[in-house]
Amino acid sequence: MEAIIETLLEYAIEQQLMEPSDRIYARNRILACLKEEDYTPTDQRVSYHYVSELLQMLCDIAVKKGILEDTLRNRDAFDSQLMNCFMPRPSEMINTFEMKKNNSPILATNYFYHTSIASNYIRKDRIDKNVSYKVNTEYGIMDITINLSKPEKDPRDIAKASKSVSTSYPSCVLCKECEGYYGSLRCDGRSNHRIIPLKLNGEDWFFQYSPYVYYNEHCIVLKGEHVPMKTCRKTFIRLLEFVEQFPHYFLGSNADLPIVGGSILSHDHFQGGNYDFAMANARVVQSFQLTEDVRADRLFWPLSVLRLSSVQKETLIDVADTILQVWRQYDDPAVEVYAKTDGQMHNTITSIARYRNNRYELDLVFRNNRTSKEHPMGIFHPHEEVHHIKKENIGLIEVMGLAVLPARLKTEMQAMKDYLLDGTRSDLLDSHLEWLQNLQQSMTWTKENVEEQLQEEVGKVFVEGLRHCGIYSFDEKGDIAFQKLIDTIEGTLT
Which of 27, 41, 211, 415 has the highest Cβ tally under 10 A? Predict the structure, then answer.
């Protein structure tokens, strides 16, 4: 035990989570967590690759001592508490962040991101298990991730959750009250979690990183108040004010309706980061001036996107809001777009903000969540023929060109390779079989090319799913319909 603790203490000092003068205090905090009263410091050390390995050793000790029940949720809460022994108080982190931000926003985010990884709040050991690769498509280089980082729930935790008394604290996993929260059956441990307060549109918002980052510096910006997602004029103000404060980051908002929205619609929030998705570099197929100060570009992208740009932030907000209001009530039966049926609203927008080349940018992605008998999960949602690869919502991250695919695909893709090479059948392939048969007949498969070709084909299916979400196709019918929308927008702005 002593060697593990001393190794962990040295790690915390090396990662600048604490000063050498904090060593004795931090050691005693760890001993308190382990309910250990006797201790003899040692010069011995243990080897490790991830800090999580040291934490799991200490969790093992806690399990043996009977102070920790051996489930993943309990271990996660406990190891977060262990790392909190090294963490600065929120006020200290905020002060350091603001001091660095006054010199450079990049220095501030570098500090916060490093701390979030070093503290094991960002669980890098699990993220590194993800299968990630890139696929070159007609729309640019798409990112593909098979998500293995979020572990499956322990049946014992599920059973306890069903019997647990419901509480309202924190209201959800995004609430500011999660900072420092030990954890419960409904909310993961966040003892080592820190958030940075922001002002956006004069309101209290908070900046943090995702514990399971999908791309570089994947951040979440959450409203201080627990209120549902709502796309409105304020959305554009908040997005642009953020990229004004952090011009090296993008920030985007999920749509605010089911099917076309993200996985969490109960708490207003954004996602951003320091990363260029394929969408950011999408080819422009049409450019025009909406106003004297605002340029609009139609992008060559599977979904239907209008990029607005201007040096005038306020004018850009006015134009974006006008487009939102037009789209909220816009009908076009020619492309199956109806703003409302049976009192239910269908039209909304996914929006992404950047500050590039001294201009503010807003990408407005037109979304519609109407369903039909043919497409019960959504007309503008991945259709049934691609569900074997991607069935879930196309949220902000996917909209920009990063496929977050289910963990099952890792095992299934191995079985796919066997089938493509020698026809070996597996029950795992039932949902993929028709697609695989077509691939086998239309392409040449060898041990040398099977992995790369299969990855490319999976990427193509993802792109096809994105196309299904697009309102306006790149053909005569789609071009005419899109121009009709643009004409309506221009008429409203005049």
Answer: 211
The separation between CA 114 and the C-alpha centre of its own chain, rounded to angstroms, equals 18
Omega before residue 170 within 30° of 0, cis: yes
Cα gap 131→126, rounded to integer Å = 11
Residues 6+ apart with CB under 8 A from 322: 489, 492, 493
Taking a C-beta distance cutoff of 8 angstroms, is the pair 222, 205 a contact?
Answer: yes
Residue 262 confidence class, pLDDT cut points 50, 70, 90? confident
Read off the amino acid at residue 198: L
> Where along the chain do the CATH 3.30.428.70 domains lie?
129-151+197-403+476-493
CATH number of 129-151+197-403+476-493: 3.30.428.70
- Split at pLDDT 50, 70, 90, the class of 359 is very high
Q: What pLDDT is stored for residue 464 in this prediction? A: 97
CA-closest candidate to residue 319, choices 259, 402, 237: 237
User: Which range has the worst mean pLDDT, 51-55, 164-168, 389-393?
Assistant: 164-168
CA 326/CA 306 separation, integer angstroms: 14
DSSP output for 55-79: HHHHHHHHHHTTSS-SSHHHHHHHH
Alpha helices in 246-370 (DSSP H): 313-328
